[in-house]
Write a structure and sequence with these properties.
- The complex is a heterodimer.
- In chain A, about 30% of the residues lie in helices and about 25% in strands.
- Chain A is of the alpha/beta class.
- Chain A is globular and about 50 Å long.
- By secondary structure, chain B is an alpha+beta fold.
- The chains are: A alpha/beta, B alpha+beta.
């Protein structure tokens, strides 16, 4: 694919990783563009233009809007009310959406996956960068097709996925029944990624954009022969490119 | 619509922020931390949105609701999903120590402070609303709910003052358990109280109001006038650049855009740390590109008589200030525009006095340069430009006209000198023109005798005094008439070496210039309110000082956190009256003058045993501090000691603490001069300096000072009109009203206000302490001050008209 499809990486105050996203999306063949949310609001890029112009929408992570009102909340309000975007409709029309870190939380606030899910801070955890082994579950998610156990960097170690206690059974059942919980940690207990029913809107806590080459790993030198190998995060974007080509 | 929103984690979830808070408190104050059994931390927002109720409700729901993990409290605006009552009581019920004793500490960012969180929330709300109104506002804050039977008010105040709300840009208040359970804080009036502040767009009305009410006495005798001409002008220690010279008008400053820069007090030490860090980003932005910004601003201001006011609300690196001032200078020199740099500081606090002071300096002043270069022996005609009989309406247009006329006159090279006289008496204004009138002048009051007598010692309305070149006089008179600008030609400069007041060609009063222009002396009786000072904190090593605390000694008290301009000293140690001030540190500048200290000491000792220590901070580090210490020891024989610092040992500052501050802080609500709540009762407490009422207000006796909501001092010389003026000022801030009965002369004392709930406790304590009191009226919601006399005749003053 040679830039036939365009990808939009959405910046907002406090977001990070846009450069990495643009780089990897270009690498896999998209024509990636990084625009600020307020610029889009000024330009009044509505739902229709979004669907026509872009194939992929990426919501990067970071501490957007200083997490006032909650991580990712203000961005969600801007997308929903400022731009009037309906990401579910975007996905229905063949678009792909990736939300990473607080971008994932934005998707939760937009109720993409339902009403009963949120994140909370686990005060016993220590905020530090760490690598986490994650395992796709189910086959629905377009972004995770063909992937097995992979290792990805996780910046928000203290963030936990939470299901509404008052609707726990039903909400948990929905996740499993519909295959929405598509990414779990190695133990299979902790949900770190969700996808919607189309499989095209994918939100995850780890950051694949920061593992594009093997040398991103802290101990890559233990396997120096693999230095030239791509990182496992690249595979997620390659899946998106393959899907776009279909 | 005014809305208050509180959000916090649901009871079934732990609150990580609260856990961190508890951990921090325990680290800082282990004994206090042990008293806290349960804690929760909520985000609070005070919101004003220009939208109908249903839209606001919808917006709040979209923006704040997080039904999975959080509860949202809005009073009765939205049905709360929290528990059975839908109030904070449901959260408190989840405490493991039920029923428990709960306390609340609420903090909020002060108005006019850059509040990033509030801006983000406002942006989000306006995005959801789909409209942006300039009247929309948000203030952010937090609410800390603590449970602990052993927690007392002092503990809560300690937490608030030393950790939770120790920043200068925050204010705080305590909430009782009862208040936490109720929804009264969500009421529109309560929310509006935090969001509304009386913006003085123009003080001209206020000035006119004051002048209209000023007692118009009959013409003083010429003997009295001659004595007053000889009397020294009672002014504060004059700073070099302390006079308006280029026609800047006092009332204008509040209207024009703000620029921030360091005050005079911060001019010498680039490394000092000052806690005013409110607009650092703006300072950095200003540092790069001042000139273009200045010219842009000038471009949108009126072409003539441009006036740019500076707003001193923070500290910045000296380089920023210097760059700014250099830019001002460049622009002033390259344009034909008189530019005046006005510096002011306003500190407005919940439950504490608000103070306001300003100084101003002409930049690139042509007039000043001309005055300096004036040839010896040239004469000028004295013009008063303004109304002789000021009307009682806003005359902002006049101010603009005067400025534009001045600019024209300067261009026409007609002006020898000029100065603003607004708010100053004629006598004071002339005494300040010592550079321009140094050889003498004659005041010819034929045709303006009434004006002369009226304003000889009373403040003038919006006006300026010009010295006009003799050969340009006729041209200027024609121009002023053409522009319909009122003026009075009231005299001429002379070379006689005398000051004369002439009527009918005869000198009615005469003094020599030597007697007239006596140098302003440092007068120990001067009003401290004219001398704002700054408390600053300096990181120094405490190596040489012991930790001892005694009521007999002046005590060095290093403080872990900043020394807030707002927090200390509310009592003015004046021999004649009480009022609230902030004690600041002009006393300890580069050249420490023991005379200053003696002055303040004398004032403090006049309060007697209430003073345990004095608080002054250091501007210039250890060297000057040691000098201060030596002065104390040698000049006053006072042993200095140091209290142990609490908390972070790396941050220490040395200052002598006014222990009365801590007492006053206990009764800090007393000190705020503005009436706060509708339906509060207003009392009159007569009392001079050593009266039981003043001792009680100072906190030296009794314990129900916190029951008061405000206290405002009345001088014995104020008279009825002075009382009305004072009450008016007290109502301005919150645009409240009052109905009071003034049936006799108030000799001096305090007006205080208290709520209905507190009245019995407060009145009982007054009786027990032997304080006379008189109920005079109530605070009302409609913004009118209604004053009834002994015959029940009412005088009504509209507060809104004065704003």
């Amino acid at each position: 694919m040679s830039g036939k499809y365009r990808a939009l990486v959405l910046s907002s105050p406090g977001s990070r990783g846009e450069t990495a996203f643009c780089h990897v999306l270009k690498q896999v063949g998209f024509d990636a563009e990084n625009l600020d949310i307020n610029t889009l609001i000024e330009r009044k890029l509505d739902q229709e233009q979004l669907c026509l112009k872009y194939k992929v929408l990426v919501l990067p992570g970071g501490n957007t809007y200083s997490s006032v009102l909650g991580s990712g909340k203000v961005l969600a309000l801007k997308l929903q009310h400022g731009l009037g975007w309906n990401l579910a409709r975007f996905a229905e029309r063949g678009g792909l959406v990736l939300g990473v870190g607080s971008g994932f939380q934005t998707l939760l606030h937009l109720k993409i996956f339902g009403d009963d899910y949120a994140f909370r801070i686990n005060e016993d955890a220590v905020q530090q960068e760490k690598w986490i082994k994650v395992m796709p579950t189910g086959t629905r998610c377009v972004w995770l097709r063909g992937l097995g156990l992979i290792e990805l960097p996780l910046n928000q170690l203290d963030t936990e996925f939470v299901i509404d206690p008052f609707a726990y059974v039903e909400a948990k059942g929905r996740l499993e029944r519909l295959g929405l919980s598509c990414l779990k940690d190695e133990s299979g207990e902790r949900i770190v990624g969700l996808c919607d029913q189309t499989g095209r809107i994918f939100g995850l806590l780890p950051h694949p954009e920061f593992f594009l080459s093997w040398t991103s790993m802290e101990d890559w030198f233990m396997n120096p022969t693999r230095a030239a190998a791509p990182g496992q995060g690249l595979a997620i974007f390659e899946n998106a490119a393959r899907f776009a080509e279909q | 619509m005014f809305v208050r929103v509180e959000t916090g984690f649901k009871a079934e979830f732990t609150d990580p922020e609260a856990a961190k808070a508890r951990q921090r408190i325990t680290e800082i104050h282990p004994a206090l931390g042990e008293k806290i059994r349960w804690i929760r931390r909520l985000k609070v927002y005070w919101i004003e949105l220009s939208a109908p109720r249903d839209k606001v409700v919808q917006t709040i729901q979209f923006a704040f609701k997080n039904p999975v993990t959080q509860w949202l409290f809005t009073g009765d605006l939205l049905p709360s999903a929290a528990g059975s009552t839908g109030t904070l009581f449901d959260l408190m019920q989840e405490s493991p120590f039920r029923p428990g004793v709960f306390h609340g500490i609420e903090k909020r960012k002060r108005l006019q402070v850059h509040d990033e969180d509030a801006l983000v929330v406002l942006d989000a709300l306006q995005t959801v609303l789909g409209q942006r109104s300039p009247h929309d506002r948000v203030v952010s804050g937090e609410l800390l709910i603590l449970e602990g039977v052993r927690l007392n008010q002092s503990d809560l105040e300690w937490i608030a003052r030393n950790w939770f709300s120790h920043e200068k840009f925050e204010s705080w208040s305590l909430l009782s358990e009862d208040e936490l359970k109720r929804n009264s804080r969500f009421q529109s009036e309560q929310v509006a109280k935090y969001l509304m502040s009386a913006q003085l767009q123009s003080r001209s009305r206020l000035l006119q109001f004051r002048q209209a009410g000023a007692l118009v006495s009959g013409p003083a005798s010429w003997a009295e006038i001659t004595e007053k001409l000889k009397a020294p002008l009672q002014v504060s220690e004059s700073r070099q650049n302390d006079s308006l010279e280029e026609g800047a008008n006092e009332e204008e400053w509040s209207i024009l855009p703000e620029i921030c820069f360091a005050s005079n007090c911060m001019q010498s030490d680039t490394q000092m740390e000052v806690e005013f860090n409110l607009v650092r980003q703006q300072h950095d932005a200003l540092a790069s590109g001042f000139v273009s910004q200045l010219q842009t601003v000038l471009g949108v201001l009126p072409e003539r008589g441009r006036h740019w006011a500076g707003d001193d609300r923070g500290s910045h690196p000296i380089r920023v200030r210097e760059e700014f001032e250099n830019s001002l200078q460049r622009v002033a020199e390259t344009t034909a525009t008189p530019i005046v740099q006005m510096k002011f500081y306003e500190d407005s606090h919940e439950n504490e006095p608000s103070y306001f002071w300003s100084s101003s300096v002409a930049v690139g002043s042509r007039g000043a340069a001309n005055a300096r270069n004036r040839l010896e022996g040239s004469l000028a005609d004295l013009f008063y430009v303004g109304y002789a009989d000021p009307p009682a309406y806003r005359n902002l247009t006049l101010s603009e006209n005067i400025k534009s006329a001045l600019a024209l006159a300067i261009e026409g090279d007609a002006i020898e000198f000029s100065t603003a006289s607004t708010g100053r008496s004629l006598l004071e204004t002339l005494k300040r023109l010592d550079q321009n009138l140094q050889y003498g002048f004659d005041l010819t009051i034929d045709g303006c005798s009434e004006w002369f007598h009226r304003f000889f010692e009373k403040p003038l309305p919006i006006s300026q005094i010009w010295g006009v070149k003799e050969d340009k006089k006729s041209w200027l008179i024609e121009e002023l008439n053409h522009r319909k600008i009122p003026f009075i030609h009231f005299g001429t400069t002379s070379l006689t070496g005398d000051i004369r007041v002439l009527e009918g060609g005869e000198p009615r009063a005469k003094v020599s210039i030597k007697d007239f222009f006596q140098p302003a002396r440092f007068d120990p009786k001067r009003d401290l309110l004219d001398e704002p000072l700054f408390i600053q904190e300096k990181r120094v090593q405490p190596a040489k000082f012991k930790n001892r605390y005694s009521i007999e000694e002046l005590v060095l008290k290093p403080e872990t956190y900043h020394v807030s301009v707002a927090s200390p000293v509310v009592i003015r140690p004046s021999l004649n009256s009480w009022a609230g001030i902030m004690v600041l540190s002009d006393l300890c500048g580069q050249e420490f003058a023991p005379a200053y200290m003696e002055y303040l000491l004398r004032k403090c000792t006049a309060i007697g045993g209430q003073i345990h220590s004095m608080q002054i901070s250091m501007l210039n580090g250890l060297k000057a501090w040691l000098k201060t210490v030596e002065s104390f020891r040698s000049d006053f024989g006072i042993q200095l000691t140091q209290l142990e610092a609490k908390g972070d040992p790396e941050i220490q500052s040395h200052w002598i603490a006014l222990q009365l501050i801590s007492k006053v802080n206990d009764s800090r609500s007393v000190r705020s001069e503005d009436f706060k709540y509708v339906h509060d009762r207003i009392y009159w407490l007569p009392g001079s300096f050593d009266h039981p009422a003043t001792r009680w207000l100072a906190g030296a006796e009794g314990r129900y000072q916190n029951g008061l909501h405000s206290a405002v001092a009345i001088e014995s010389t104020d008279g009825k009109q002075g009382v009305i003026n004072t009450l008016t000022y007290a109502l301005l801030k919150r645009k409240l009203g009052a109905e009071v009965k003034i049936q006799h002369h108030f000799a001096g004392g305090f007006f205080v206000s208290a709520s209905e709930n507190e009245r019995f406790a407060v009145e009982e304590e007054w009786r027990s302490v032997g304080i006379e009191f008189e109920f005079v009226g109530r605070v009302t919601s409609s913004p009118f001050l209604v004053v009834r006399d002994e015959n029940d005749h009412a005088q009504t003053i509209s507060i809104e008209d004065l704003i």
